[in-house]
Design goal:
Elements: H1 2-26, H2 28-35, E1 37-42, E2 50-52, E3 55-57, H3 59-71, E4 74-79, H4 85-90, E5 96-102, H5 105-110, E6 112-113, E7 118-120, E8 122-127, H6 131-136, E9 142-146, H7 150-156, H8 169-172, E10 177-181, H9 184-193, E11 198-202, H10 203-209, E12 219-222, E13 230-236, H11 242-255, H12 258-265
Parallel strand pairs: 1-4, 1-5, 9-10, 9-11
Antiparallel strand pairs: 2-3, 5-13, 6-13, 7-13, 8-11, 8-12
C-alpha cells in the first residue's frame, strides 16, 4: 500500500511539474522576455511607421519603443503583408501587431487586443482636379484599399456598420469597381499614377501623407462622408499575458507626458484616446 501511495504521489508531482512547464510555455511574456526582444509586425505608412531618409520614425515606432523599454525588452520591427498579419502572429514569426490597426469585433475574437489608444476614421483620397466630379457620380469609378484593412472591410461590408456610421461605405461605393492592394501607401500611389480614381484609407494616414509639401500634393483628402469612428489597438496572440502589461505601460507613459510628447511630434494630439 505504501509503495502504491508513493507511486501515486510521484505521478502527481510529475504531472504538476509538467503542468508548470506548460503554463510557462503558454506565457507570452516569458517567451518574449526570454528572447530579450519583441518582434513587431507592421507596414510602412506615415505617421505611424515610416522612413524619414535613413531614419525609421513614426508615432507607433516611438510609442512601441518607449513601451517595451519600460518593460525591459528590445524591439525588432518587421514589415509584413497586412492581409497575413494574424497568420504571422499565430505562427510566432511576429509577437505583436502595432501599426495603426483598428479594433473590430472579429479581431477581438481572434486576437488579444489592447485598450484603444488613437482615434481614426476612413478617408476618401483622389486627385484634386477630379474629386468633385468623382463624388458626384461613382458609377464605374475605380476604388482601391489595402487588403485586410478596415477600409476594405467597410467597403465590402465584412465589418458591420455601428452607431457612429452616418454613411455606409458599402452602399456609397456600391456602383464602383473595387481592387485590393497590399498597403495604404500603395493605394495612394495607384491614385497618383492614375490607375485608380479613389483610395479609401485611414484618415490618420491620409492627413499625414497627402497635401501640400508631400509626395501627393496634387491630391485631396475628403472626410465629408462619415463612414464611422474607429479606434486603433495593439494585437497580441489570443490569451497573451503581454496585453495587460502593455496597457499598463501606456497608462504610465500617458501620465508622465511621454505619449503626449510623441503625439505632438506627429500632429496626433487631438486623436489620442483619453486614458483614465
Amino acid at each position: 500500500m505504501k509503495k502504491l501511495l508513493a507511486l501515486v504521489l510521484a505521478v502527481m508531482m510529475m504531472a504538476g511539474l509538467i503542468t508548470g512547464i506548460a503554463a510557462a510555455e503558454d506565457s507570452d511574456w516569458d517567451y518574449i522576455s526570454g528572447k530579450g526582444k519583441v518582434v513587431v509586425g507592421m507596414t510602412l505608412f506615415a505617421p505611424m511607421n515610416y522612413y524619414d531618409g535613413d531614419k525609421f520614425v513614426g508615432f507607433d515606432t516611438e510609442l512601441t519603443t518607449a513601451v517595451f523599454k519600460k518593460l525591459g525588452v528590445d524591439v525588432e520591427f518587421v514589415e509584413i503583408n497586412w492581409d497575413s498579419k494574424e497568420i504571422e502572429l499565430n505562427s510566432k514569426n511576429i509577437d505583436c501587431i502595432w501599426n495603426g490597426m483598428c479594433i473590430t469585433p472579429e479581431r477581438k475574437e481572434n486576437m488579444s487586443m489592447s485598450n484603444a489608444y488613437l482615434y481614426n476614421t476612413q478617408a476618401i483620397v483622389a486627385k484634386t482636379d477630379k474629386i468633385n466630379d468623382l463624388l458626384a457620380n461613382l458609377d464605374g469609378v475605380n476604388v482601391v484599399a489595402e487588403q485586410g484593412s478596415t477600409g476594405e472591410g467597410k467597403l465590402l461590408g465584412t465589418i458591420e456598420d455601428d452607431e457612429t456610421v452616418e454613411v455606409s461605405a458599402k452602399e456609397f461605393f456600391s456602383k464602383s469597381n473595387y481592387t485590393a492592394v497590399d498597403s495604404m501607401a500603395k493605394a495612394l500611389m495607384e491614385v497618383k499614377s492614375g490607375t485608380a480614381d479613389i483610395a479609401l484609407v485611414d484618415s490618420v494616414c491620409a492627413l499625414a501623407m497627402v497635401g501640400e509639401g508631400t509626395d501627393y500634393a496634387d491630391m485631396t483628402v475628403n472626410l465629408d462622408n462619415n463612414f464611422g469612428l474607429q479606434e486603433y489597438g495593439i494585437a497580441f496572440r489570443k490569451g497573451s499575458d503581454v496585453t495587460e502589461k502593455v496597457n499598463q505601460a501606456i497608462i504610465e507613459l500617458t501620465k508622465d507626458g511621454t505619449v503626449a510628447e510623441i503625439a505632438g511630434r506627429y500632429g496626433l494630439t487631438d486623436a489620442l484616446v483619453p486614458v483614465e
